[in-house]
Amino acid sequence: MSHERKSNSKRARAYCFSVTTLAVIIWAVSAPSELSQKAVADLPAGPMQAKATTACLECHEARIILQQRLSKAAWTKEVDKMVKWGAVVDANDRDALIDYLSLNFSPDQPEYAPPRTSGERTSWKK
Amino acid sequence: MRSRRNFLKQMSGAALAIGAAPSVFTWALPQPQSDSIDMPGEDGLIVRSFRFVDLETPVEYFNTWLTPVSHFFVRNHMHEPSELNGNLANNDWRLTVDGEVDKPLTLTFSELSKLETHTVVNTLECAGNGRSLHRPQVPGIQWGKGAVGTARFSGPRLQDVLQRAGIKPTGKHVMFRGLDEVPGKVPPFIRSIPIEKALDSDTLVATHMNGAPLTKHHGFPARALVPGWIGAASCKWLTKIKILDSEFVGNFMSPGYRFPNQPGKPGEAVKPEDTHPLTVLNVKSVISGPLDGASLKAGKVAVQGAAWAGESNIVQVEVSTDGGLRWNRASLGRDQARYAWRLWAYEWKASSGDYIILSRATDSEGRTQPANPLWNPSGYLYNAVDQVKIHVA
After folding, report:
1. pLDDT tens-digit series, residues B43-78
2. Class for the domain spanning A40-108
3. Would the CB atoms of B55 and A78 count as touching at under 8 Å?
4. Could you give the CA distance from residue B164 to residue B117 in angstroms, rounded to a whole number?
5. A2 in contact with chain B, both atoms CB, cutoff 8 A
6. Are residues B47 and A117, on separate chains, in Cβ contact within 8 Å?
7. Domains of chain B, earliest start first
8. Mutate which: A58, A59, A68, A117, vs B, most B CBs within 10 A
9. What pTM does this model have?
10. Domain chopping of chain A, boundaries
C-alpha cells in the first residue's frame, strides 16, 4: 500500500516536473521581456475547479489550499470563514465547494511538496 | 530578452545544483524540488505561499548564530504594501502615535532615525512554526520546522517613541498597525501588546536587521520588535501605534493567536473563554544536521542544531541516538544573547544501523520540551522533542 503510494507520488512528482518544465519553456518563449514572478500554482481539475479559482484565488494563491490536509468538518469551517471574509461563493455552490476541497485535500492525501526559491543556491553548480 | 535569458540560466542552474549537491554536502538533501521560484534576495527558501509571501528556512541553514536576511523566514498575513519600494526619498511614510496619550505624535523616518538606536539579537519565531507536525492536522500555513531565525535588530526603543507622546495612566495596551494591504473583507492584521512589554527597554521600533535597512519582506522601513514573543507581536511596515485602555479587539487577538488554558485531547474543540492570547515563545530545539532521511558513513557524526526559549535562557540540550533511552549532553555554542538561540552540537561515534536521533532542550525556568506535542486547534507553539531518522552504512 505505502509502496504503491510512494511510486504514485514519484510519478506525480515526475509529472509535475515535466509540466513545470513545459510551462517554463512556454513562458520563456512567450512572456514579455520583464522578469515575471508569476509563479503561482493551479487548483486540481474537478467540477468546482473554475468556481474555486474565482472564489479563493482572488485573495491568495492555490498553494495555501494545496498544502492543507483537512477533514470535511474543518473544510466547512474554512469555507464559511472565507465567505465571511469576502470569498464570492454562490449559496448553491457551497456544498459542492466543500466536497471538492475535502476530496482533494483530505488527511489521507500524500504530503504536499513545496517548491523553493532559487537564488544563491544555484551557485552550487560551481 | 536579457532578463528572460537570466531566468533560464537560473532555472538550469537550479537543475544543475540539484545534481551537484550530494558532492557538496555529506548529509542527504531533502527531496529534489520540481521547480524553483525566482525571488530576488531569498535564497533557497521553502515557498509555503507566493502570493501572499510565506517563506520557510530549511533546517540545514540553522548552522549560524545569526541567520542571514536571505535565509530568514518570511511570514505575511496579507499583501505587502504596494507603495513602499525601498526608497523613502519620495515617500510619505509616517509613524503616528495616538490614543491614550497627552499629545498625539507624527514622526517622519528621519525624525525616527534621530532617536537613540538600541540593538537586540532576537530569535523570531512564528507562533505556527511546526504546525504541519500536529495530528490531526489543523488549518493554516503548513510550516515545517523553519519559521524561525535569529537576527540582530536595531532601531529606537519603543519606550522612547511612546514617551515623546506621553502615556496617560489609562494607557494599558499598545496597538500596532502596519501598511500591509487587506484583500476582500479580511480583518486587518492588528494586534496589541501589554504596556509593560511595550515599555521594556529591549522592545524596539526596528529599522535595521543584521546591520542593513529592513528589506521589504521584513517590514521596511520600520517594524515593531517584541523580543522573546511570538513573531505576530512584531508588526511589520509599522505606521500606526495606538495606546489603548484595554486589549485590542480583533480577529488576530481572538480567535487568532490564542492557546488553550488547559491542554485538551488532540482534535477536540476548545471554547474561546478557555483560551488566552499567545505571548512568549516556548522552550524548543531543532536538529539542523544530520537531516531527516540522511544516509551517513560510520564514524564521527556531528549532531547539531539550535535551541531557544523566548524570554528565558537555554541551560541544557541533550541528544539521544537510541530513540530516547539514553540522553547525552550537547555542548552549547559560545554566542549568546538574552533573546537569542544557542547553537549546540554533540559528537557521536556512529556505527552502522538505523537510528532515531532526538534533541531536547531545557531552559532556565526548568521547562523541558515534551515528548509529545501539545495539540491545539490552530497548531500554535509546537515544541515537542525534535527527531530525525537516519541510516548509517
Report:
1. 999 999 999 999 999 999 999 999 999 999 999 999
2. mainly alpha
3. no
4. 15
5. no
6. yes
7. 95-277 (3.90.420.10), 284-392 (2.60.40.650)
8. A117
9. 0.85
10. 1-36, 40-108
